[in-house]
Amino acid sequence: MFGGPHGMRRLMEQGTLKPVSVAKTLSRFGKYFKPYWLALAFVALLVIITTWAQVTAPDVIGQVVDCYLNPVTTNSFAGLAPDAEVAESNCWMAGEPKGLSQRIILGLLTAGDFPQPTEGLDDAARLAGLGRVIAIVVGLYFITSVLTGLTFFLMSWSGQHVLRTLRVEVFEHLHRLSLGYYGEHEAGDLMSRITNDTETIQQAISFALVNVLSGLLLLVWIAYNMLTRSLPFALLSLTAAPFMIAATLWLSAQARKAFRKTRLEMGSVNAELQETISAVREVQAFNRADENIENFRATNAANRDANIQAVAYTSALAPTLEALGYVGMAVVVGVGGMALINGSDLMGTTVSLGLVITFLAYVQRFNQPIQQISVLWTNIQSAIAGGERIFGLLDEDPGVQSRADAVPMPLIEGRVVFEGVSAEYKTGDPVLHGVDFTAEAGQMMAIVGPTGAGKTTIINLIPRFYDVTGGSITIDGKDVREVDLHSLRRQIGIVLQDTFLFSDTVMENIRFGRPDATDDDVIAAAKLARADTFIEMLPEKYATVLGERGSGLSQGQRQLLSIARAALADPRILILDEATSSVDTRTERLIQEAFDVLMAGRTSFVIAHRLSTIRNADQVLVLDKGQIVERGRHAELLANKGFYYDIYMSQFWREEDEGAAQNNGRGMAEAGA
Question: What are phi and psi of 114, to 5 degrees?
Fold first, then answer.
């Protein structure tokens, strides 16, 4: 019923989330299911037919007994109760049918002028009638099996189409959200919205929802049939039902609590493993292996105990319901058997062997939906809560987006003006205060300052990764907020210190800067970036597939590929974070040469980490606490002996001394030669 022996465990050990607004979430789901309303209507019809077949089968089995095997026209147990009165027949197939179900079954029985099971049938007629009724019972079970499979297929088909639409919408929306959103939300949580939440929704749509709805319908229908057939017999038969419901709710709740504990303990096991493996060198160096092993034994033992406790509750659920079901069956057999033996009715209800068998089948079927609903209802709640999380993400305001009246950005010449610019990532916590500067077309602007001064914020504002909260930024006289975002960013190239490469070929990683570029264009960009030398040494050259984030390449090689990517895009404005602290001297020189070629003729903004970059800058912007405290060329700023002079003395003077020493060394070597 739940996907094999471990199915119930898998369902119960999932985290249960409580939805906040069920009606609102279901209404939004309804919009996604609207295109598939015909399939859902067919599913509803199939559920009704399947439930009808399951409810009708026990009644027909009872007719097999009362109409053909043991027709009650005389007291069958008269030898045990000689003074008992003759009971009336419970064989409705012999008379006028009552209700739609009886008319359908009787119509199937008498199709082709087949006789009803009237009194006085010979053995051949009874045997033929018995065969036909058994065929009807088999047909009902066959219909149940086939239509159940078709129901789940149609629900899965509809659900997969809905989930595909949801995933695509979420993925598209993630690309529209501003960087500010990603600064406040972890990537793992966002991935969970698309993977875990949609998986929970998929489980609910595929089988949980159908099982719960059909289970509820089956419970109501069985109870209705039992009550209409015999109110006193039904009440006696259902005496165990409240205990079944209580046991199911309690055991399910305890199992879920225990499984929550197992997840915590498993997290401790994983954390212990990760920490120990990562620190294996320190463990061996300080001879702490034995202590770590003992700690892991204790953590693993706690995980074992938690799992045993959880499995104990899960394993107890089915046997408990089965045992209580047997209690209900015992009541049916005991009360019905006594009435049969005594030849008496039960508070006005004629008791026959067929009626007892019918109620036995009803009671036996009653426990399945109870267990089904209890286990799966929490999964439906989790699915609704998962839907709320997904819809919450879709409702997030992208923040930075093109205005409705935005115009395309014409070809950029490169004059950039910051006028009274203020910016903040969190409301009330400003990062920039009244920043003013002008970068003429083709100029190189070096940005320096201590950590947290606002350097990165400035370069983030130019391509509108964030919007200003005060003042304005114009490019060639056009406010960046008034132009189409795509046309703006298409003309801005960015090379960051933390280079991101995709798990694809070298060729495609460079082509990412301009998807329509030819192979020759890519190779030309690689040569311009001085990356062609190491690319030609790779096993498959430009066709070499890189590992995740460019694993297998050095930091410098990854940065050269990033420069080639920017060169291929041929941007009008260039933004660089030219840190080279993690590369060797030769690679650093290659990177600097590539930067020099790339910046030629372009307006460029460089977060400067090298003295040579600052010296070559047309203007140096010195930031502190979100404000420009000094500006000018390198020599001018040094002469002022202000804030920049302090930065220079703490960060750059040693680099200058080392450069001078290298130049002196080369001069002496040349003189000696």
Answer: -75, 135
- Cβ atoms 404, 236 nearer than 8 A: no
Residue 8 amino acid letter? M
Predicted pLDDT of residue 307: 75
Classify the phi-psi angles of 466: left when phi > 0, otherwise alpha if psi is within -120 to 50, otherwise beta.
Answer: beta
Which element (helix H / strand E) includes 405? none
CA distance linking residue 503 with residue 493, whole number of Å: 21
Closest among 68, 258, 257, 39 to 153, alpha carbons compared: 39
446 in Cβ contact with 400 (< 8 Å): no
CB 379 within 8 A of CB 212: no
Task: Report the relative pairing of strands 429-439 and 444-448 from DSSP bridges.
Answer: unpaired
Cα 97 to Cα 110: distance, rounded to the nearest angstrom? 12
Q: Which candidate, 76, 96, 92, places its Cα nearest to that of 84?
A: 76
Distances (CA, A) of 41 to 24, 155, 216, 255: 21, 11, 18, 35
Whole-Å CA distances, 657 to 206, 474, 597: 70, 40, 26
Closest C-alpha to 44, from 158, 164, 138: 158
| Residue pLDDT, tens place only, 478-535 | 888 888 888 888 888 887 777 777 878 888 888 887 888 888 888 888 888 778 888 8
pLDDT digits (tens, 9 = 90+) for 108-135: 888 888 888 876 667 787 788 888 888 9
Residue pointed to by tokens 């007291």? 75
Structural element, H or E, at residue 604: strand 603-607
Helix segments in 75-203, DSSP class H: 99-109, 123-176, 179-184, 187-194, 196-203
Residue 345 has pLDDT above 70, yes or no: no
pLDDT tens digits, one per residue of 50-96: 999 988 888 888 888 888 887 654 444 444 444 444 445 678 888 78
Nearest of 335, 315, 314, 316 to residue 239 by alpha carbon: 335
Give the DSSP letter of residue 285: H
Please give the model's pTM, rounded to 2 decimal places.
0.68
Residue 348: pLDDT over 70? no
Identity at 458, one-letter amino acid code: I
